[in-house]
Specification:
The radius of gyration is 21 Å and the shape is globular. It is mostly helical. It contains 16 helices and nine strands.
Length: 456
Amino acid sequence: MASLQIESSMPISRKVEILQNFLAREYFHKSGIIYTSWYWRADELRPWKAEDRRPDQAYPHTSAGFTPEGHNSAENSPMVSGLFLQSQCLRYIATGAAEALEYAAKAFHSLDLIYRLTEADGREGFICKPYDWKASAETSIDQYTFVMMGLWEYLALADHATRQRIARMLAKMADWWRVSADYHITYFERRIPLLPYHAPRLACLNAMAYRATGDETYAAESSKMLGLSGAWPTIYDAQRKLILDADPATLRRDDDFQDYDPRRGRFLFRTREVGGEMYLGLACADWFMRNDAQHMPLLKHVVARYTRQMQFGLRDDLLTLYGFELDLEKETWRAVHTTATPEQRANALAGSLIGTYFSEVCWGDFASRIPDACVIAHQHAREFSPGSLDLSRRMLQRLDNERLHWMIDPDGKQLLPELDWMRWMLSGDAPVFTLLAYWKARARLSPRDLAHFESP
């Protein structure tokens, strides 16, 4: 049985060393694909097993019949592969360590195995979630974003044959969205069009495909997507505009908003997971600022705005709420408590009850993205992002075993009884994002800023 012992008192560099060695040496399935999550309760840290299933628990499910343990084990394996790959490329840039290239090759192999699952069945370019280590019909825009970022960083370090493979992968990934999917996604059997705030992700993917292949098709598609991106609004910005443009009489006002302030009702927006999704746009802004200088003036403000909005829901103890209520005009937020109705339970997406109610449960995945976002903000837009580097350092200093979990229930009363299993999961994001933030700082910050970042 493996073990992790991360204490807040440890130097950040020591936490990084422990986490990257754990991932490289322990966290790959026998297939060669990296895990998304392991079961973690007290000192028991291991892959999920069929016997972990409990009849009183509500697990995500699809009609394809994948197992709960298969879902938990590989839900975001493409994403984790891409993030681990990106972090080790930056580690090599910062240190020249041969081990960094060894770990990067292992992460790329995981990505390539996932890619081959759908390449083999005629869906090349479709990055699936490999439940039970098999091809599935599920994906998400975040899988693509993190995969393409890892591939791009590795492009400069890999051998010739691998560079050719990466160029093909980037091109076929872009083709899948444009040709096969027509910019729609089928997510747990629901066909959903991509929204305008997704356009920067697709612009970035096509720009990478163009630079890797020289095919003007991707340059044209990237320009088209950048045109659709406008000022890169977040979902919060888009919702605010919708409210300001609408007739107030037509806007919904729920009764349970009224205890806050009836005059604010039209501006209140309840949100889950948006901050974590917002990081995808921020990562793409970072890429364009480093690779296409014409976008710098706009993207300075985009980076600062995204980083600020990612901090909505961040508590004083530096844990982040999974869901909360935001005043879109004042940009203030508060925790709220609701009860899932029978109808909400019955219509839960893939049977996942976590999206049917609001509580003060905290989300380790999202908190782990903020330190890297703050490093990006400090690098590109420090004049508009006061305190970003300090926040990144403080969050990494606070990292410990509890904060490495997926869902954190501060008082044991925030998760529904049927979701108790969510408390006992190693976060898919926290280990790899910790590595990414640290090595990005080491590779890109000035010596003076790096000294502050690494200070006790």
